Amino acid sequence: MFLEKIEGLNDVKKLPERDLVPLADEIRTFLIQHIAKTGGHLASNLGVVDLTIALHRAFDLPKDHIIWDVGHQCYTHKILSGRKNQFQTLRQYKGLSGFPKREEDMVDSFDTGHSSNSISAGMGFVAARNLQHGDDKVVVVIGDGAMTGGIAFEALNNAAMVKGNFIIVLNDNKMSISENVGGMSTQLSKLRTGDFYRGLKRTVYDSLEKVPGVGGPMIRTIRKTKDGLKQLLIPGMFFEEMGITYLGPVDGHNISKLIRTFQEAKKVDGPVLVHAVTTKGKGYDVAMRHPARFHSTGAFDIETGLGKKGKPGYTDVFSTVMKKMGARDEKVVAITAAMEDGTGLKRFHNCYPERFFDVGIAEQHAVTFAAGLAVSGYVPVFAVYSSFLQRGFDEVAQDVCMQNLHVVFAIDRAGLVGNDGPTHHGVFDLAYLTMLPNMTVMAPKNIWELSDMLKFAIAHDGPIALRYPRGEAFDGEKEHRAPIEMGKAELLYQGEKVCLMALGAMVKVAVVAAEQLAAKGMKVTVVNLRFAKPLDYAMIEQMAQSHTHIVTMEDHMIHGGVGVAIADYLKTKEKTDAHIYHVGIGDSFVEQGSVPQLYKECGMDAESVCALVENIWKTP
Predict the structure, then answer these.
(1) Of 248, 370, 452, 455, which cross-links 275 as Cys (Cβ 3.0–4.6 Å)?
(2) How many CA atoms lie within 13 A of 551 on its CB side?
(3) Are 168 and 152 in contact (CB under 8 A)?
(4) Which residues, 6 or more positions from 51, have their beta carbon under 8 angstroms from its beta carbon?
(5) Is 38 helix (H, G, I), strand (E, B) or coil?
(6) What is the C-alpha separation between 363 and 382, in angstroms, rounded?
């Protein structure tokens, strides 16, 4: 009824204020129904429905700018800006993105997908506005979990320099993905429960307002004075001491109060933080009870909240083996950056809580923290999504590899991950890890090889990374399970003329392609590389000498990947005349879609490989 009236940007401003609460209820129902079919980030979006309505009412879009930190909580923003009728395509191939996309709509001010960068981006918008002598408002919405990221602190440290109005909305739901940890969470808890302070502040202001002539100026003085009322009553007020005006806490589900608070925030000359307290998953009991599980979900049954069960994934195998390794060796410790559930470390945490460390959204810190543990004689396993490890490159290079420390990087979501799109594809890790001295990089072909490689990595001495994809694990090729040897590839099938040299998830594609080619009378060789670094140069030379064509296959960018490394090596060998072809991702960011769709688009599926080999087979 009310949602039907939202067809375009700013339609929400046409509704009377009494209709906003039922509108919020309808939006929550709409989100639950659609995400149950398409999958997506449910709990975080349910938590910001009221906040988003208030933002769209209080600000003049698209003149004003809203920058969503991480961006996965932008669904209501998309609905209110006129994209409601596209929601059946959410996160689907060539459909509506699950994150803000500037090319999708001009009201999406900044493309986001990783956390903690919104304040920095917002300050850039403010600086540009000031240079252009504009009067537009800049608002960033950042979660309390994202506030633990180092770049957020760097921006806050610099925020006092901001000239003119700049609004930071702190969406405080006590969660990042897993439950929040650390000093920032503790500080915000104190602010949330500061009833004494808020009550006394209101009493003082009410009393002063009754004093004719002097009450108003006194209130303004108190608000502007650095050592004002807040500092007297709450020593060490974090934001105020950094030169940021603090408003709140305010109920993040009271739309009227939020609108009034935003109107006050717009009057502040300088940076101002609005502290909104919300509930993740609000409006759907299952998501409220299990917010981490419903942070990002596949399709599910609305009544029960249960999703479809498939085969075990690589993350499940990692979880099982980590638990076993924790029992075998008390020196094995586990580290996560707010991704305990997502990376499969929950079982390890339950069994060995004293050896489990959640450092919050702070990948750089996690890497150097692991280095400190390694120097002290422990074997740290840092489980992290591939695209998130990118943030810790300097620490991997300087603090781990330079000191040749035994840190195990369990890199989940390597390769194309599907519906979350370009910010989450893990397609750069081989390029930046294999270039580092002392680093070893492996990728398993199936569930058993993942188990063997993790055990190998824990027994290793030095920096070592194990990358594996998202989703159901390949359970084929069980008969091929040669022991893992440093830098040794595995010959799976012997053929002629064409050799498919595949790494990790692409081994399954190579095996399927080989079977289809064999049915057409073309018997090709299949090699499981196993190691991206060190490469098995003996195997590579042998294949190049016995085959006229080599096809390298990897779920990674071609540039900087293993295929280019193999080609560069063979250029130095005089006795090899094999032609080299590369299957992988070209020089572009890959958009969202199911992994099979994206493999086909990138020419990485079995059919594309077969077509390539068939053309090769025709050549002399």
Answers:
(1) 248
(2) 30
(3) no
(4) 141, 169, 171, 252, 258, 276, 278
(5) helix
(6) 9
Find the angle CA(68)-CA(69)-CA(75) to the nearest 5 degrees.
Answer: 45
Closest alpha carbon to 608 in 600, 616, 618: 600
Active site residues: 280, 363, 391
Any residues with CB less than 8 A from the CB of 548 and at least 6 apart, and which? 497, 498, 577, 578, 579
H or E element, residue 9: none
Encode pLDDT of 282-313 as tens digits: 999 999 988 888 888 888 989 898 887 778 89
Side by side, the strands of the sheet bearing 579-585 are: 490-493, 525-528, 498-502, 549-557, 579-585
Burial (CB count <10 Å: 0-12, 13-18, 19+), residue 86:
middle
Q: What is the pLDDT, as a whole number, of residue 218? A: 63
Neighbours of 228 (CB within 10 A): 15
Average of per-residue pLDDT values in the chain: 90
Nearest to 565 by CA among 416, 461, 412, 433: 433
Residue whose pair of structure tokens reads 């002539």 in the numeric block: 213
Q: Kindly state the percentage of the chain with pLDDT values over 90.
A: 77
Cβ distance 347 to 335 under 8 Å? no
Tokens 């064999």 label which residue? Answer: 518
pLDDT surpassing 60 at residue 222? no
What pLDDT, in 10s, does the model give residues 589-620? 999 999 999 999 999 999 999 999 999 988 76
Six-digit token pair at 49? 């429905």
- CA 488/CA 190 separation, integer angstroms: 55
Write the burial class of residue 17 (CB in 10 Å: 0-12 exposed, 13-18 middle, 19+ buried).
exposed
Task: Please report how many Cα atoms fall inside a 13 Å half-sphere around the Cα of residue 535, on the Cβ side.
Answer: 23
Alpha-carbon separation of residue 354 from 331, 350, 588 (angstroms)? 11, 10, 43
